[in-house]
UniProtKB/TrEMBL annotation, chain A:
<feature type="transmembrane region" description="Helical">
    <location>
        <begin position="321"/>
        <end position="342"/>
    </location>
</feature>
<dbReference type="InterPro" id="IPR023616">
    <property type="entry name" value="Cyt_c_oxase-like_su1_dom"/>
</dbReference>
<feature type="transmembrane region" description="Helical">
    <location>
        <begin position="252"/>
        <end position="278"/>
    </location>
</feature>
<feature type="transmembrane region" description="Helical">
    <location>
        <begin position="464"/>
        <end position="490"/>
    </location>
</feature>
<keyword id="KW-0249">Electron transport</keyword>
<feature type="transmembrane region" description="Helical">
    <location>
        <begin position="165"/>
        <end position="189"/>
    </location>
</feature>
<keyword id="KW-0679">Respiratory chain</keyword>
<dbReference type="InterPro" id="IPR023615">
    <property type="entry name" value="Cyt_c_Oxase_su1_BS"/>
</dbReference>
<feature type="transmembrane region" description="Helical">
    <location>
        <begin position="77"/>
        <end position="104"/>
    </location>
</feature>
Automatic annotation (TrEMBL), chain C:
<feature type="domain" description="Cytochrome oxidase subunit II copper A binding">
    <location>
        <begin position="85"/>
        <end position="207"/>
    </location>
</feature>
<dbReference type="Pfam" id="PF00116">
    <property type="entry name" value="COX2"/>
</dbReference>
<comment type="similarity">
    <text>Belongs to the cytochrome c oxidase subunit 2 family.</text>
</comment>
<keyword id="KW-0249">Electron transport</keyword>
<dbReference type="InterPro" id="IPR001505">
    <property type="entry name" value="Copper_CuA"/>
</dbReference>
<dbReference type="InterPro" id="IPR045187">
    <property type="entry name" value="CcO_II"/>
</dbReference>
<dbReference type="InterPro" id="IPR002429">
    <property type="entry name" value="CcO_II-like_C"/>
</dbReference>
<protein>
    <recommendedName>
        <fullName>Cytochrome aa3 subunit 2</fullName>
    </recommendedName>
</protein>
<keyword id="KW-0186">Copper</keyword>
Amino acid sequence: MTVASPAAGTEDTGGRPVVPGGWLGWVTSTDHKRIGLLTIGTSLVIFLLMGVLALLMRSQLAQPDLHVVDPATFSQLFTIHGSGMIYMVLTPFAVGMGTYLVPLQIGAPGIAAPRLTLLGYWLYVLGAVLMLSGFATPQGAHAGGWFSYPPLADKVHSPGLGSDLWIAGVLLATTGVIIMGWTVLWTVLRRRARGMTMLRLPVFCWSMIASCLMVIGAFPALLAALALLAVGRADASVFTSNTWNIGYQHLFWFYGHPVVYVMFFPYLAAVAEVLAVFSGRRFFGYKGTALSLLVFAALSMSVWGHHMFATGQATNDYYSLTSIALLVPAGVEYFGMIGTILGGRIRLRTPMLFALAFIPQFLIGGLTGIMVGTPVIDYHVTDSYFVVAHLHYVLFAGSAFGLFAAVYYWTPKVTGAMLSERLGRLHFWLLVVGTNLTFLPMFALGYQGMPRRVATYASFDGFAWLNLLASIGAGFLAVGIGVFVVNVLWTLRKVALGRSGNAGDDPWQAHTLEWATSSPPPRFNFAADRSLPPITSFAPLLDLRERRASGAAVGAEQEGASGS
Amino acid sequence: MKRHLPYVVVAGWGALNGLLLAVLGIYGESSLVFWLYGGVVALLEVAALAVLASSRTGPDQHVRYRVPDRGAGAVPVVALGCALVALAFVYGLWLLALAVPLFGVAIALALHGTTASEG
Amino acid sequence: MIQRRVFGTVFTLESAVAAFVFLVVLALVCHAVVRRRAGRQPTPSDRPQRPVLEKYYVGVLAAFAAFLVAWTAWQNHEEHRPPNRTPVRVDVMGFQWCWKFGYPQSPAKVSVTGTCRGKDLPTLVVPTGRPVELRLTSNDVIHSLWVPDLRYKMDAFPDHVNTFTLTLDHEGRWRGRCAEFCGERHYAMDFWIKAVSPEEYDRYLHGQPIGTGTGTAT
């Protein structure tokens, strides 16, 4: 342990020196920025893989009675697509963003317990590898759906090794995410720089507090559910009893609903930061938003039973009460976002495009969420394509758009180079068309009676043309993501060759502390010879610019007065 | 109050969950749910106490920090060991025979420190 | 068809409100993008919050949420009110991957099942105008009985019996499905639900096959 100053690195390291830029320097790094980037990079790679699985499914469903893959393989595809996107992509990416950004935003040189954070990352990676390695086993990967209800997921009905690997992988990865959640939470609560009071935390940091509280409170329930599943696979008699079948569902959804908000708040907050910066003003209704995030998170811990309305074994009235009550904090967040842009001076750069599209698109997910939180509607639409549409509007049209807004917004800070604006716009429009073309028809499909997780459907079901539209939309998504990949790789290549041109410390005229240091930031985030700007609010850089502007105006006035 | 705001946030959030649990008590649910949710509320309050203890012993905001500037070569080895333990439940407990030496290697690495300054 | 009616009422209201909210938000976003573009040189507002407006807004949201909670809970209880006549009982058993319908009150102990392959789908026969109590269970994994035209589904658990009552007010034949993923042939686990006149139902219970004429599905 040393004090963070450039001179501190000279103490005896007691071992062979390792080149910091080498691969060993990366995989053993205690620098929160590297750990964050490793997490984000890993989850983006898995994101691409999961997209391929989705394309396979959409090609099978494009027309009735198609058999691109057999039904058993199809079940593996949707199981791993769902598990991968939730356990291995959107959740780790959100926590990885927190790992990278939170110390910078609070003016700290590092994260609390960096070695533990690194351990969390490694558990996550190895968990992902274990889960995916199921495809290499004789019976293929796990095929019980991402929530893997017993008795279907027990040894009798899912005898494959893929199921065991799925349990082991998800258990490891979730343990890793819990560890990272703890260190991010501890950092934001206990490692703030002088002047950074709780009420001057950026909105993104508040979203990480809310998210990490859910991680530490709700995620252990998944570990318990997986342990129960593992016990049930060893002893088949466990799941002959209804108590444990329904008990598993309670344990699972106690995790399974809060995780949706862990996959949502950080992206929502990234959108909030982008909206404020590209509106040229501070975020509107800061206190209400921070408070509503905490209330939102607490409520979301108590709504899990709305996934069980059709089980006939849940207290539907209560879960409906808490689910519908969510519209209050969600409304407060929309109040802040809309208020910010209504009084802004809007620059339509790529991050802002994604952030603006997030607002109405996520709203579709949110409003249909109130519907599925209403038991009498849910009885019809649960486990149908209506729910598939709803969750993809929340997680793709919402969170993934926030994810891309974040990537375009923070890439100049992370790499020192801007992503191409032209490719970014192309990516954006392809994604908007693709997202709505893919997921909007699914509402109608579910309403008409198409169950989710069907490997195919009959021609007389009447689902053909809506499914075809959805599959065409998936094609747009594939091209759009392809453009994004080209954009990122091209930029990284330019950075590697030193031909990227410097983005500068603060290319967007941003508000928060990470933009007060160099791009990319030095090892300890803020160089010793460059003092932090005074932290006067949750937008210290905006305060600084305003003070300079008013100072200049006062100066000019005085000059004018003395001149006359 | 201001100084202990981190504690208040965590404790208050736990208490809000407790309130929601109490409302569920009015509606009624299976006993497993009350154990589960009650346990989580208790866990959150313990976390809040940890934050309080830390706030009492250190400053709320920092000027000087202690952060490591060296890599941690032992960590990936520990993680690999954990993965082997998880795999032992899939392929048999003999894998523990590989995991235990790995943990030994990790301890040795942690004591000796093989990675240099990243500063 | 109380399920269909209640669903229709609540779904219509919530869709209308949702559409209204969506259009308002979309209009506000479009307004901001058009009117507040940097090209038009607007001055960014320096008003950090509007607490009074926000309080009223939260009040309206909370009031609407309270209404929605109470009203939809009431609708839910209406939907599940016990029938005023003794219902006809049918035992439904889901299995991998088809259904079995048993009529415990029938003199001939009628029981129907199928393979759910090709056209071999089992038919659940019920009388019109009389409440029918379905007692759902499973002998392997969790299934879910869904009749999309009825706008209702309920899960079938092993080691547990779930019950719900439906009343069909006209003759016809509708498609039923399994909604809970239950393994490889989940996609094919369909059945028919057929409502016949009480007289024909009576004959059916005595072991006579149902006339081949199919009703009109709505």
